[in-house]
Write a sequence for this structure.
């Protein structure tokens, strides 16, 4: 696994005006790189836009490969491991949307965009083509990450202001936000408890996830649970894998190991060993 420092990764969180819609914007830059630098990324249930201003980037999701060059790519919400390989000079950025904000930005049904890598155009994301050209020109002019971030914020705020008063976008937004926050703050919760806490039935829950997020509630909950486990393994905040399994809401060790391996392509024990060998694995 390559060192994250080799791509000079910078992550910027949105201002208050965008904080309910955007998770973060990341920047990667190393224009003198001549190596192939590969990274594995545990998905978080967010959809994202990827922009590349340098040499090709190889993307992989669900055994599908796609080259990211000058055309922006949509990385749909997924419960699978993403892989990204920089193949030469690096100058790229990505926008990560909060799971509940997808309806504000994308024209296609959210479910149809999930678990996929898509070369994106104005039919899917209105004005993306002119926006991409604006970013490309700013990069050519030597704009800093903060200056690029300002361009991104202005563009997204304009889109939100044009849509925010439409009832269809606000419908059920409070409810789906409550559900997502409940899962994010308590990754051990089960579906029955989640429904009870939010006063809905399982069918309503699945319909909301299909409409707003694109993946099932069960898949999203498993993602958050494995993310929590991964964070504890990374930060070494556990006493034993057996205890961590119980504390994470798993009733048996085999289920714990299976979920982690499905999403990370490593068992928890293998992940810990790999972390010990390379403290920069992400």
């Amino acid at each position: 696994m390559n060192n994250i420092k080799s791509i000079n990764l910078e992550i910027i969180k949105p201002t208050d005006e965008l904080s309910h819609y955007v998770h973060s914007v990341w920047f990667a830059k190393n224009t003198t790189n001549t190596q192939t630098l590969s990274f594995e990324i545990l998905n978080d249930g967010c959809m994202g836009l990827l922009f590349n201003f340098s040499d090709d980037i190889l993307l992989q999701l669900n055994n599908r490969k796609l080259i990211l060059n000058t055309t922006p790519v949509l990385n749909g919400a997924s419960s699978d491991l993403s892989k990204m390989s920089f193949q030469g000079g690096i100058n790229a950025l990505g926008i990560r949307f909060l799971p509940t904000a997808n309806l504000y930005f994308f024209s296609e049904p959210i479910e149809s965009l999930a678990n996929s890598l898509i070369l994106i155009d104005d039919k899917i994301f209105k004005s993306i083509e002119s926006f991409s050209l604006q970013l490309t020109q700013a990069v050519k002019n030597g704009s800093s990450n903060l200056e690029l971030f300002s361009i991104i914020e202005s563009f997204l705020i304009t889109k939100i202001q044009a849509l925010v008063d439409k009832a269809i976008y606000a419908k059920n937004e409070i409810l789906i936000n409550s559900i997502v926050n409940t899962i994010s703050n308590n990754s051990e919760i089960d579906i029955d408890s989640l429904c009870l806490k939010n006063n809905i039935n399982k069918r309503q829950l699945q319909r909301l996830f299909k409409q707003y997020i694109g993946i099932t509630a069960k898949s999203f909950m498993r993602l958050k649970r494995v993310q929590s486990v991964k964070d504890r393994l990374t930060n070494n905040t556990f006493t034993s894998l057996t205890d961590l399994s119980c504390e994470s809401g798993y009733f048996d060790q085999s289920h714990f190991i299976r979920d982690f391996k499905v999403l990370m392509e490593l068992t928890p024990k293998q992940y810990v060993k790999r972390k010990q060998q390379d403290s920069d694995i992400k």
The chain has a mean pLDDT of 90. Strands lie at 10-12, 22-30, 36-42, 48-52, 57-61, 64-68, 73-75, 81-87, 90-97, 117-119. The two ends are 9 Å apart (CA to CA). The CA atoms of residues 60 and 209 lie 24 Å apart.
